[in-house]
Amino acid sequence: MVPRMLALLGFANAVAVVALWLHGGGLHDEPLTSLGRLTGLLGAYLSLVELLVLARGPRTSAWHRWAGHAVLWLLIAHTVLITTGYARSDDSGLLAQARRLIEEFPGVITATAGLAILIGVVIASALRRRLRYETWYFIHLYTYLAIVLAFSHQLATGTEFVGDSVARTYWYALYGVTLAAIVWRYARARPLRVERVVDAGPGVVNIELAGRLRARPGQFFRWRFLTRGRWFEAHPFSLSATPDGHGARITVKGVGDHSRGLRDLRPGTRVLADGPFGGFTRAARRRPRAALIAGGAGITPIRALLEEMPGDLVVVYRAPRAEDVILRDELDALAAARGFSVHYVVGGDRDGLLALVPDIAERDVYVCGPPEMVDAMRARLRAAGVRRIVTERFAL
């Protein structure tokens, strides 16, 4: 219900943006210039919506990627349409008009810099798997700078700010609410401390944390370990054990400098937990039977889900190599205590995973693993007739 209400609120505000554009004489200018102003306003609005959604906690990275690309294309369209419209009105060339806009209109140079930053962020997202997480994370922080630069342009030359007090008040409110949501997100970070670090297999550690933490099994937090060299980085890890209000546990596989270094954390180290995020949780309206399919380190949120899920369960866990299987002892103990079955698949073809659950079409299915694996399994499950599929793209 809440996501639906927020979606309706977002749509209503988009309508308000268009209405204020019309109220400000949006259709009275040169057509390309008018359309350019509208695309700029919608691009600015969608960028604020994306920040608000991220501050609340994204349920899926697919929407984040779509919104990011939509913002970029709207702002590119704004730049091209405005430049072309002014060039037609002044009977000048595009390059000459672009130079005139940059040199004579306040805020255009900062908006141009902001657009260049957004292009860089989108390129970095496309190259995500080739970049270190730390590099990708810091590049994404520049999104905030890009939005500030764009706002300075909107404030200096935007028709809605210069000549329409109602629109000016409305846009100030939008930016103010977004800023408040971002500040609240960081202010609400839960303080915890490392209680102990336990070896959980080759290159894998369980980090047990003490402190109050509320979340649903399957969700994740962005963890900031307040030690030298790590305090400025926030990394996402799912809970691998259900929090009881007084602590939590994450399971980390060392695949990068940061994750490998967490093995050396000392008890008492302070931690800030930003979240909870994610929709990889037990479905409210669920069937009595479920299948949980994990790939690699994607078993960690499924391990937490298994603590609270009732009914007839089947777990299928695929790992590239035998040494990549983690938490096996805990999974076997839970299976024996709760009476469900666990199938371990080392290597092999993904197509064979569904054959291990002959009645898959009659179950709710939860899938967590690398993006390629999740996307492929979703397609196969749909083809097999599965109605409810809950997924989490677990990119390391």
Quickly describe the structure.
With 396 residues, this protein is an alpha/beta fold. The protein has helices spanning 2-23, 31-56, 61-90, 94-104, 108-126, 133-157, 159-162, 165-187, 257-261, 299-305, 328-338, 351-355, 371-383, and strands spanning 190-199, 204-210, 220-225, 235-241, 247-253, 270-277, 289-295, 312-319, 341-346, 364-369, 389-393.
How would you explain this protein's 3D organization?
This protein is an alpha/beta fold and 396 residues long. It has three domains: 186 residues; 88 residues, Translation factors (Elongation Factor Tu (Ef-tu), domain 3, Beta Barrel), CATH 2.40.30; 105 residues, Rossmann fold (3-Layer(aba) Sandwich), CATH 3.40.50.80. It has 13 helices and eleven strands. The strands form two sheets. The protein has a six-stranded antiparallel barrel with strand order 1-2-5-4-3-6. Strand 1 and strand 2 form a beta hairpin. Helix 3 runs antiparallel to helix 5 and helix 5 runs antiparallel to helix 6. The longest helix has 30 residues. The chain starts with a helix and ends with a strand. 34% of the residues are buried. The model has no long low-confidence stretch (mean pLDDT 82).
List the helices and strands and how they pair.
Blueprint: H1 2-23, H2 31-56, H3 61-90, H4 94-104, H5 108-126, H6 133-157, H7 159-162, H8 165-187, E1 190-199, E2 204-210, E3 220-225, E4 235-241, E5 247-253, H9 257-261, E6 270-277, E7 289-295, H10 299-305, E8 312-319, H11 328-338, E9 341-346, H12 351-355, E10 364-369, H13 371-383, E11 389-393
Parallel strand pairs: 7-8, 7-10, 8-9, 10-11
Antiparallel strand pairs: 1-2, 1-6, 2-5, 3-4, 3-6, 4-5
Helix pairs in contact: 1-2, 2-3, 2-8, 3-4, 3-5, 5-6
